[in-house]
């Protein structure tokens, strides 16, 4: 169950990063509320996953899901620039996440 909690926490990190961008510096109420709720839920699920997973593994995978997911949302939804270097960086993060998962005892 820890991996499920962690995956959902990572997805919620993408949600709060996107909604934070949409909040326009917390000047728009709806996106600001989504940001706060998604952040709280993401942190809560991360903490539940840490009951069974090592700190380094859980935190690295949580931030990695958020980083790569926010990159993808930025490119696909917000029309942000996509270059070979940015794609290579995202691929390297994903490779690191896979290695961390494979190295995890849990």
From TrEMBL:
Subcellular location: Cell membrane
Membrane-spanning parts: 33-50, 57-78, 84-103
Pfam assignment, any one: Multi_Drug_Res
GO MF annotation terms: transmembrane transporter activity
Bilayer topology annotation: Multi-pass membrane protein
GO cellular component: plasma membrane
Keywords of this entry: Cell membrane, Membrane, Transmembrane, Transmembrane helix, Transport
InterPro entries: EmrE-like, Small_drug/metabolite_transptr, Small_multidrug_res
Top-level taxon in the UniProt lineage: Bacteria
Coarse class of the protein's main subcellular location: membrane
Gene Ontology BP annotations: xenobiotic detoxification by transmembrane export across the plasma membrane
Family membership: Belongs to the drug/metabolite transporter (DMT) superfamily. Small multidrug resistance (SMR) (TC 2.A.7.1) family. Gdx/SugE subfamily.
Protein name as catalogued: Guanidinium exporter
């Amino acid at each position: 169950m820890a991996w499920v909690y962690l995956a959902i926490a990572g997805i919620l990190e993408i949600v709060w990063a996107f909604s934070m961008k949409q909040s326009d510096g917390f000047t728009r109420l709806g996106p600001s509320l989504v940001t706060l709720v998604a952040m709280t839920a993401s942190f809560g699920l991360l903490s539940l996953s840490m009951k069974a997973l090592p700190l380094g593994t859980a935190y690295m995978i949580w931030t990695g899901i958020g980083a790569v997911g926010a990159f993808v949302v930025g490119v696909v939804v917000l029309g942000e620039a996509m270059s070979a270097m940015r794609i290579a960086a995202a691929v390297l993060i994903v490779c690191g996440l896979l290695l961390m998962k494979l190295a995890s005892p849990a």
